[in-house]
Structure formats: C-alpha cells, structure tokens
## 1
Amino acid sequence: MRITHFELNAEDGVETEDGSVALQLSEQGRDFLKKVHPGAMSHFGILLNLSKGKGCVSRVLQAALRPSSPGQAVPLRGTKGGVGILVGESSPSAAKPQRVRDLSEMPGPGTWSNLVEFFLKNGFSRIHDIQLQHTQQYGKIFKSHFGPQFVVSIADRDMVAQVLRAEGRAPQRANMESWQEYRQLRGRATGLISAEGEEWLKMRNVLKQRIMKPKDVAMFSAGVTDVIADLIKRMKCVKVQEGASETITDVNNLFFKFAMESVATILFETRLGCLERQICQETKDYMEALELMFSMFKTTMYAGAIPKWLRPFIPKPWNEFCRSWDGLFRFSKYRVTQKHFCNLAVLLLQTSFTLSWSTYLLARNPAVQRVVYEEIVRNLGSDVTPKAQDLSKLPLVRGVLKETLRLFPVLPGNGRVTQEDMIVGGYFIPSGTQLALCHYTTSHDNEVFDQPGEFQPHRWLRKNDVDRVDNFGAIPFGYGVRSCVGRRIAELEIHLVLIQLLQAFEIQVAPNTGTVPAKTHGLLGPGKPIDLKFVDRK
Ligand code: HEM
C-alpha cells in the first residue's frame, strides 16, 4: 500500500526531539486519506476512530515519521502496535515545525506553592480564581501536583475540543478515587458519576434510553409545572411573612427545595412536600445531611489529596468524608437515585445554583430582564403556562440559561484521564494522565467571547438556520458520550421555572445583596446568600 500524495500545512508537522516529524492531520488531510485509500484507515491505528466519523480535525497522528521516507510503514508512537505510512513531505514553504515537548518542560506551580495555596490559603473554595491566575502565569496548558495526584490543566478552547473529540467509547473522569474507595469499603453500588469502563457503559445505556432527548423529557413537563406552581405559592407566602420588603432571603435555599421536589417528581414519580410549610422529618434530615456534605467539601478534597499512607497520622479528612456519606446513605427513600446517579446532592445543587445565578443576573441587569420578559409576552403570553414545546419560541430564555452557565459554570473544571497517548498544545501527554479541563477560564476568555464579563443572553441567538453558536469555550453540560445525562431534564426545569418566575414577578436585587462573588463548594455556587426582591407584576 502506498499513498503517493498528501498535502501538509505549516501547522501540520510537529518536529520531535530526535528530528523525526509527527503528523497532525488537518481535515483536508483526513478526507484525502479516506478518499484515496479507505482501507488505509485500519493501518493507522490511531485513525480508527476517524474512519467511524468520530475523529477530530486537529487530532495528532503520533508517528515517529522520517521526512525522507515516504511510503514506508513506520511504528506509530502512542498506539497499540499500529503502523503509519508517511504519505508526503511538508511543502517547502511550510514554516519550521515546532518540537514536541516533554511533560518535564511544561510550566506550572511548584508543589510547595500549590500546598500553600490550597491548604493554607483556602484554595479549594477559589478553584475558579486559581484557574484564571495560573493560566495568566503559566499559559493555557500547565501542570500541577496535588499530593499524590499529578494533573495537566488545559485552559484553551481548542485544546479542550481536541481532548473531548478524541474520546473513546468509555471516557474516564478523574478524581473519583475517594468515592470509589468509600463505596468499596461500605459495599455500596457505584453510581453513574463515579463508575468507569464497561460498568459505566452498561448503566449509561439504561439511563440514556429514558432521559437524554428533549422529546423524551417533554413528558415530565406537566409534573414540573405542578412543582413550579408550588414554588410560586411558597414564594408568595414567604413574601407575605417578609412584609413590605417583598424580599426572599437566600434564594438558593428555596431553589434547592424546588430542585429536590422536581427531581423526586421526575425520577421517583412521587412528591416529597419540600415546598410545603412543614417538611416531613426524613426529608428535613436528608437536606441537613446534604448541607453537611457540602459544608465538608474541603474535607472531601483533602481526603483525595492526602496519600493513604498518611491517613494513620492525619485521619480526620478521610473519617469525616466517610461520615458524611454514611449520613446520606441512611435515607432509604433516596437510595434508588443514589444507586443510579451516585450523588444526588450534586445534581440538586447544580440546578439550584443555576437558578440562583440566573435570577441574580436578571435582577442585576434590568434592561436584559425587560427584553426577555417582552419575548415571553410576545411569543407565549403573560399568563399562559408554558409547555416543553413552547421553548423553541423563546430563544432568549434559552440564552439566559446558556449565558448564566457561561458566567457561572456550576462545574468550573472537569476531569478526564487520557486513554491513549496524545500531543496537546505541543506537549506529549502519555496515556493515563489526569487532565483538568478549565471551563471557567475558557468561558471568561476574551479571545473566545466578546466582553466576557457581561451578561448578554442574546450572544447565543442564532442568526439563521445554519448559524451555529456552539462554542467549546462554554460547555456547561460537558460534551460527548460522558456528558451530563440529566441535561435535558435540567434545561426543561430551568427554562419552565424562569418563564413562570418572570411572568409572575419583576426580579430586583435586595439592597443588602450587592455583588455576590462565586465560591467553589465543589460546584461553583454563591459565596454569600443571594437576597432578591420578587415584585408582583399584577
Ligand atoms: C444546571 C444543571 C446541571 C448542570 C450544569 C450539569 C452539568 C454536568 C456536567 C458538566 C457533568 C460532567 C460531564 C462530563 O464529564 O463531560 C454532568 C454529569 C452528570 N450529570 Fe449533570 N448537570 C446538571 C443537572 C443534572 C441533573 C438534573 C441530573 C439528573 C437528573 C444530572 C445527572 C448527571 C449525571 C448522572 C452525570 C454523570 C454522567 C456520566 O458520568 O455518565 N445532571 N453534569
């Protein structure tokens, strides 16, 4: 087999240290290869995915290819015994290719400065800020050590896209060791969030049949609407208690109860009464256990960062981590969800934080709120209860959610463990490396988003049917086969509740609220309570 011609662009060739050249396939290159020799794909181990249409434009063909040996089969670095074929040479006009660098050459904070930052300066609650700070200091790809863990952080939209597009059939999320260890210790089943490999695939396939598509989740619309009616009733009661101020203090508390009630409605087809005046004791205890879990987020991080051999000397973090999980597992009512999803608390907080941030942003930007409200009145009506099928008429409401999650991505960073060798940002990253994808930083990158600090839901409006405003800079639900399985449910709930809140109230910032900083409590939540005024529209 010999492919005689192959176009290379300047950025396609990356020179390795020993003078050989690694090929980075451009889209044209890949298409060309497919056209001239479809069979060749099977010989390019690393290209197997591409032939199934799952590859990525900038995927690197990690071959140690000699520029002078076109047509020769050579071993591919980073593939399991695959061979590649040099199909051409860089055009003479091509700029000098870059050298592939080793991880030892990657910049990043030293172990000690990281220890001081995280353990002495409370860095675990400022993970999002540290992401920004480290990106400024070390660039868009840098390495760090957290106790026994070594992490490569990626804060560049295109590199994030490269990593996620290259994923295999069962991507591995990082940082779940503590959860897995706890579950093994106590004999608890692994949930979807922390499962890996074949076990994950099996669970995911079961769930995805039920809740992955917008049209499948539309059937939950009526149930969610009932819960929203209860939420608004509850808000009106609280306002009456507050008297003339019309203020609801710490809105997240109320939105958390709403999230819990609607998840129960959707997933266990039951009502818990979280939005009633009197909450049943078991639900109350469960909510307290969840709060404890989150107040102990720091402990969770310490539990993961302290090596096992140090535990006899510093036992507290691991013991507390187990104690808070034991607390949550006591509640048999919630076991079904715990079993499937692993951490119900995370899911509830994702929804409640997002609702808190979006109402806060609407209150802080009254002009934007007015335009969104006008869209609702114009395209739906001021008192028509929305259904799932109405959402396509309200692109700005959808923009509000996207923009909220861009400014405050509840998961400010995500993890992946590389499953094969890769070259990212000019660095050779071996298989098994833990990556941290810095979504908070890419969401605030002014090379990716114009005026990134501004709340502009209209930036997400499509100009026409072919316009795509998707952007790897902001992927709050993740991307690909391991992305959020509850995305469609969360979107449905949040869109429906935002519409009805805006139909019922004009949302204003309470005088004492001021600017609310974000804080990482595992997820990116408000750093202080958000108090808002909900002024009746009629
Ligand atoms: C605003 C609300 C939410 C946001 C922003 C959000 C975001 C995310 C993100 C970023 C991930 C990780 C994806 C990845 O690694 O690529 C994730 C995973 C997950 N989410 Fe959500 N989520 C939300 C609500 C929900 C809800 C309501 C549910 C359940 C009903 C849910 C269920 C899950 C599950 C089970 C996973 C793990 C998926 C897996 O590992 O296969 N999420 N979510």
## 2
Amino acid sequence: MDNVFIPFSSSGLPQGSKLSTYLTSRVPDRPELSSALSGLTLSPAGKGRGLGPSARPFTPESTANGSPPQSAAAPAGPATAAGPPGQEAADAAPLFEENVGGTTYYFRAEDAAVQKSAEPPTITPPYTAYVAPPARLSDAQAATHPASFFVSDQLREAILRQQHVLLMQANPQAFPGACPSTRSEDLPTEVDNYHELCLYLPTEVDNYHELCLYLPTEVDNYHELCPLEPPGQPHKSSTFGYVTSAYKATNTKSGQCYCLRRIHGLRLSGTKCLQLVALWSKVNHSNLVTLRELFTTKSFGDNSVVMVYDFLPAAETLMARHFSQPPQLNGFADPFQDPSIPRPYSAQKNAVLRQQNALIPEPLIWSYVIQLTGALRQVHSSGLACRVLDPSKILVTGEYASPGGSDRLHINCCGVLDVLLFDNNATNPLAMVPHYQQEDLVSLGKLLLALSCNSLLAVQRDNFSTSISIVERHYSADLKALIMSLLMPPRPRTIEDVMPLIGARFYQQLDTSGRLAERLEDELGREVQNGRLFRLLAKMSAITERPELNLEPSWAETGDRYMLKLFRDYVFHAVTDEGRPFLDMAHVVQCLNKLDAGSSDKICLMSRDMQNVLVATYAELKQCFQRSFQEVFEETLAKEDAAAS
Ligand SMILES: Nc1ncnc2c1ncn2[C@@H]1O[C@H](COP(=O)(O)OP(=O)(O)OP(=O)(O)O)[C@@H](O)[C@H]1O
C-alpha cells in the first residue's frame, strides 16, 4: 500500500515547494516500508519480522528457561522422527521442528499444545480512548449531567474552589500588616535585609484591635499568612474562652499549606504539655484534623501560642452548614435567631418545632454518626479524648455528590483544651482522660440530637422531651435509641459499645463510599484521556510553527512538519461551506485520538492556498509526528550535552 496518495497535481508540483519537499523526504522510507510489508506473511513465524524504518533482522531471543520464544511456537511442519543433535534416541515422542531466522528449533507435540493454549484468550487494542461509564453509574449520572469529555461541573467547581482557597492571600487593605509595602510610611528607615523586614513590628499600636489586624510576614517556619475569619473586633472563642484566630499559612520548608490556630496573649507555664502535643500528632484518621506542632511566638506583638493543624481547603464548619440558616416561617425570619438571647420557654419550644420544616435526611445523619464514631474510636484508642465535639469545631468538606454521599466530617482543634487547661502540677496528665472520653460520648449524643432537630436549642434541658419527640416522629427507632443511649444512663462505657447501635447502617455507609469512589474513578478516567491529549497537543505545539531548528529556519515548514501543520489546520482551523469557523469538540477529540492511535483511516489535507490536496492516513501522520518530535527532543539533548561538556 502506498503510504501517500496524491490524487491531484501529482506531477505538477513546483520544485522546492513544501509538498514536494515532503514527498522527497518520504522517498527513502518507501523501500524499507515495502520490504517490511513484503515480509509480512502468513507463513510460519520467523519470517518478515521487523516492520518499520528501524527494523533489524529478527534474532530469536532465548527466554529465561532457554526455550524458543512463545511467539514462534506455531508448529511449522509435520511431526518428524528426527531429533536435534544430541537428543536421546530413547525419546520416542514425536518432535516438531521449526526454522526461525536460520535456527532450527525442536519441540514436542505437548509443548506445542501448551504453547498453543498459551495464546492469550483476549487481546486489547494498542491505544486507549474515552470509554462509556459503567451502566450502574450512567443511570445515576444521566439524571445529573450529560455525557461529556470532562469531569462533571459539580466536581470541577468543588476542586477549583479548593484550589482557589489554597491560593488565597490576605487583602492588604483589610489587614494592613499583611504586605510590608502598604505600611511603607511606618517602616524603619534602615532595613538591611528581607529577614529584618519580616521581623518588623509596629512600634506604636494604638489599641488591641489594631494589633489583631497585624499580620507578620513570617511566623516561625510559616509565611504567607492569610486569616480565615473576616477582620473584626476580636472575640473570645465560646469553646476555648480565649481570643483565637485561624490562619492559612505556608510552611517555608515544604511549601505545604497548614492552618495556624493562634491563641492570643497566652504564655505557656511549662513545656510538659508538649508531651500531649506529641501524642496528638501521632493520631491520624480521615475524620480528624491532624495536629502537627505547637510553638510560641512574639511575631504578632504579643505572647501567642500557635497550634499547627492540617489545612482543609474550602472547609466549612458544621455550625455554618446546618445551624446558621435563619429559621423561616411563612417567609418571615425568626426574631429569636441568636440562641444566646434569653427568650420565653414557649418561644424556644416553637423555634425547635419550627425547624422541623427542614430536617436533615436520616442517611446523612447516619453518615455523620459513622464518621464521628470512627474518629472517636481512633482518638480514644490512642489514650486521648477529643473534648471539642462542638458544631463550630467540626469541619465539613466535599459537596459534589448527593447528600450523604460525600460530605466528610473532620474533628478540628483536638488538643487545644489539653494545652489550655494543662495542669503542670499533676503527676499524671492523662489521669482524667477516661472521664473526658465519657464526656465525648455525651457531646456526641447532644450533637446528634441538635442535628436531628436541626436546632442548637434542642439540646437545652427544657427542650429535651420536645426534641426527643421530634426524633421519634421523623426518624427511625434506631436513631432515637442511639441518641437516648448516649444521653441517658446507663450510658455506653466506651465508644466500642456504640458500634452495635449503628449495626447494619455501617454497611450502607460502606456501599455509599464505594459508589462514590467508583464515580470519582469514572470522572478521573475522563481526565486521564484529557491528560493524554494535552501531552499530544504540547508535543504538537513544540513542532508546528517552530521558528527554526538546528539553524534551519524552514524546518517547521518542510517535510513531516508541513504535514503536521496541515493536520493542525484540519483539526483546529476547519471552516464551514460559508467560511465560518467550524468549532466542534468531538471533531477535535476524534482527530487527536486517531492520530495518537495511528489509525489507518485516511484524511484529506489541503494547503492553505487550496492549490494542493494530500491524502494521508493517521498512521502516516503519526510517523511524521514521532519523527519530528524526536528531532526536537534530540536537539534539546544535544544542547544540554554541549552545555555540560
Ligand atoms: N484546619 C482548618 N482547615 C481549613 N479551615 C479551617 C481549619 N480550621 C478552621 N478553619 C476555618 O476557619 C474559620 C474559623 O474557625 P474557628 O474554629 O475559629 O471557628 P469559629 O466559628 O470562629 O469558632 P470560635 O467561636 O471558637 O472562634 C472557620 O470558617 C473554619 O472553616
């Protein structure tokens, strides 16, 4: 088969034209190709191997056990009684013989049968392509988004939001200390180096508020501090009783992002509490935000303690997710929105009852139960207690699947109370842990009750019976039993005792997680194909329109490269009959995939002046592509070698 057909103006090409250069450059390939093709035969294996320009004569390679290669196993002729030299005459089994590249191989009939059966039962094509999602996924997917070359909009947005948060920086207008240049009028007149600049602190701070807005450029091994809360009047944390701030920061050594939890104005009275920090740093669980280290610093202008946690981009608190929506009734907001404002009993009770309109689906609550108990189990088995099972200290990530499918909880700020309330005089700092573990179980019960009633008011003693009746009416008996057992005596003694109350829900959660993993794998599969096409395009762009290669300015416009340029025009610059741009992603993807696979389909390429038309197969274009990129690549290496020597 001719590898290039020139149906028009085959003999009329002007000497030195781009097409004629290409054709000339292809001539030396033809004898090789035709000799290789002529070697392709259906006769016994061993003849005609080595397709392609770089083909070498076939030499039989011994396998590990010295037998002939499997691919040469087809019996070449009738069984003969003749054995190879040195073969025992007593060996009566008939032998097959086969000549491969001048070497004669002998093998027995049963070996031939084994070799025959060793043929793989299935074959896969030498290319990859976009594949349809599995049937069980496509049913669910069809409802949410149509078939696409890319990941779903929902997942893309979620991932982009996370990456966006990781790149977020402090706004110098809101935090004047964030960028030293914005405080240039306050800077010391002589700053010798950057490090000194980083250590610069405002000398005159009018008030504490201003100090809280000050962001040092560097704190210990962390820089690029970005506050995670909006600037405002500093307030004491309801959980810790201290003013605290959370920052995203980058570790100067690893470049990774962490969350710095700063406790303002705290001076540690000893270093014994670091033992607990060391214990916490060893507790790893997917539903726990890992504590990495603790250090003290004066970089903020006061004595601060900073606890470093893993950073979960785009995480929101359980409080923000479920308890921050103002309760709505007939379009009017509840006037008693703030639970800290005292209100008459009936108003509180009504508020609890009103929240029933937007109750959380039960599968989501069970998903939370399983995640939280999993984390608690890990913490308790490490000899520690959480002490912070509060909606403001539980982070939620993942929102790209149906509710309950992907929402992941992470218990945050573990160890903060251990440090804040550390008793330096205690002989055993872990003595109270069993008591705190019991408190964790009660906190879990309260949290589940609040989630089931969709209101923080639900856990107040006065509202308890109303809240339990809401759970009874809207949820399963299992959920009510779990909440009651956590809140009412006799309580479970350990977190392990809670497991039987979860029962078969655990399997349901496993199934949901498995389905989510399958869906994500399917989405990832599409991006794998996109990544492959991107690499193809990157190589293509490195070839086409290159101003020169190896001092040859016309390199990109001649030979193989000219074919690729025409192909690029065909893929991306196609026009309709009316001359309008033809933009079709399916056309682009199909052409690139066929090029990558080296398809034998033919393609009609037209020069830009429309005077010449070339018909080539994708396989030929692929050869042009590989040869051209190899040239560019080798030139790169040549330059590197020259620079090294
Ligand atoms: N490890 C973390 N990774 C990512 N974001 C976090 C992390 N820890 C906290 N945040 C975010 O920082 C913000 C503030 O967290 P913080 O725990 O201080 O909440 P808070 O509601 O201000 O509680 P408090 O009343 O105790 O001050 C929250 O929006 C939370 O999403």
